[in-house]
Each structure stands twice: as C-alpha cells, then as structure tokens.
C-alpha cells in the first residue's frame, strides 16, 4: 500500500466525519467513544493513525466506519462516489431507513467488498472458506431479510 493512499483515506474519513457534524478537535477520542459504544475497544492511538494517514483500519473496523459515516467502501478507500463506481446514484439514508436490492445487486456488492478487502489486505482467505460461506456470513451480518423472489431488504 502506498503511503499516499493512506493519506487520501484519512482525508476522506475527515470529510465524512465533517459531514456528520463532528468537531475536528478530538476526533480520535470521539471515534474511540463511538466504537466503545458498539462494543469495539481500540486505543485512541489507533484512531489517531487512521486520521493522520499512518494506517488503514482492518476489514471489521472499516465496516464500522462505513456504517457510521453512511459512505461506501468505494468512497472511503478509493474516493469514488457510488455514482462513479456503479453508474447509479448513491443513497444516503437515515439511520433507521431500509432499502431494497435485487439478489444480483447484493451478490455484486458482496463480490466487490471481498475484492476490495483482499486488495487492501483487510481480510485473509482460508482455503477451507468457500465463497458461498462468505456470502451467507455477509448476508447474515447485514441483517438481510428475504422479501420476495427478486428483492432483499437490508437495514441500514
């Protein structure tokens, strides 16, 4: 990973936190408190490194940032808005709002997330883990509920 990409990630993270109205001062502590509230206990220094372009979060922590900031992985890692990455407008939703995806869209999102995670060494794949097992874990983690043959319902 190039150091420049870490710096760009940090800039995008700051921008996302700005859009949430977070104060610039004390962000590592604010992030530590947020993560602590969801049961993830990391040092303030860890968040400091993310915010200063010294390191990337691992996969699980990146997912927490996606949920917190309501930004896509594409935005945080690559700087691409959803419209640039997919050709469709992004959906910035209220915390309790739900959205619908086709099964195909959900599978595509899963494949994209796994590819990005592998590229950035955020996950390591074991030979005993099948893509099907990973997909089911992904769907379970998102709390996806089947609504009919064509659509799935995903809580934000």
Biggest sheet layout? 3 strands, antiparallel
* Fraction in helix: 55-70%
Task: Give the DSSP E fraction (strand runs of 2 or more residues).
Answer: 5-15%
Low-confidence stretches are 83-99, 150-156
Record the strand order, biggest sheet: 1-3-2
Q: Report how far the terminal alpha carbons are from each other.
A: 30 Å
Residue-averaged pLDDT: 74
> Total helix count?
8
Q: In angstroms, what is the radius of gyration?
A: 16 Å
Order of helices and strands: HHHHHHEHHEE
Number of strands: 3
The structural class is: mainly alpha
Shape annotation: globular
Record the SSE blueprint:
Layout: H1 3-19, H2 27-37, H3 44-51, H4 59-69, H5 73-78, H6 82-86, E1 98-102, H7 103-119, H8 131-142, E2 145-146, E3 151-155
Antiparallel strand pairs: 1-3, 2-3
Helix pairs in contact: 2-3
Search tags:
156 residues, mainly alpha, 3 strands, globular, disordered C terminus
Task: Give an account of the 3D structure.
With 156 residues, the chain is mainly α. It is 56% helix and 8% strand. Helix 2 packs across helix 3. The two termini are 30 Å apart.
Outline:
The chain has 156 residues and is mainly alpha-helical.
């Amino acid at each position: 990973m190039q150091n420049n990409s870490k710096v760009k990630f940090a800039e995008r993270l700051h921008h996302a936190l700005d859009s949430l109205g977070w104060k610039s001062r004390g962000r590592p502590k604010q992030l530590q408190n947020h993560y602590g509230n969801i049961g993830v206990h990391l040092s303030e220094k860890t968040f400091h490194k993310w915010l200063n372009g010294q390191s990337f979060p691992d996969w699980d922590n990146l997912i927490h940032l996606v949920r917190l900031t309501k930004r896509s992985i594409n935005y945080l890692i690559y700087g691409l808005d959803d419209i640039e990455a997919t050709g469709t407008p992004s959906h910035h939703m209220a915390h309790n709002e739900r959205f619908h995806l086709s099964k195909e869209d959900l599978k595509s999102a899963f494949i994209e997330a796994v590819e990005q995670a592998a590229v950035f060494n955020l996950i390591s794949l074991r030979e005993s883990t099948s893509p099907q097992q990973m997909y089911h874990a992904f769907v379970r983690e998102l709390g996806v509920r089947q609504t009919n043959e064509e659509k799935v319902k995903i809580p934000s």
